[in-house]
């Protein structure tokens, strides 16, 4: 399944006239197969052995290019490190307050909320953001072991 997705992503790159360097390909592939919404640093660490000459700045640079053509979403949570997500179908995130893990979950997009907000405020809505917070399974288990 991700093979297919990767091919589609490569096609999008080609259509956008973006050069497909081996690093760019690797960053994209890593994001596609990663369920953890990695930071640039985590991507760098994962690919370091494969590309000894690559720097964190290169990873950032690649992520920015991928973001510009809409393949990648940047998730900022007010701390210093953004997390990155391969931009597939719209989904929401649930975030662990203990370890910061972000997990995807699917729920119909809350379009009614957007149009209501538009009507009530007169804004032109561009997007919305909803996050659910809690404690993930592994953090929950750690907690119970302590007691
Ligand atoms: Zn957790
Ligand atoms: Zn996600």
TrEMBL record:
Gene3D superfamilies: 3.30.1490.190, Winged helix-like DNA-binding domain superfamily/Winged helix DNA-binding domain. It comes from Virgibacillus oceani. Zn(2+) binds at residues 96, 99, 136, 139. GO terms for molecular function: DNA-binding transcription factor activity; transcription cis-regulatory region binding; zinc ion binding. Its cofactor is Mn(2+); Fe(2+); Zn(2+). Keywords: Cytoplasm, DNA-binding, Iron, Manganese, Metal-binding, Repressor, Transcription, Transcription regulation, Zinc. InterPro entries: FUR, Fur_C, WH-like_DNA-bd_sf, WH_DNA-bd_sf. This is Peroxide operon regulator. Belongs to the Fur family. It is found in: Cytoplasm. GO terms for cellular component: cytoplasm. The lineage of its organism: Bacteria, Bacillati, Bacillota, Bacilli, Bacillales. Binds 1 Mn(2+) or Fe(2+) ion per subunit.
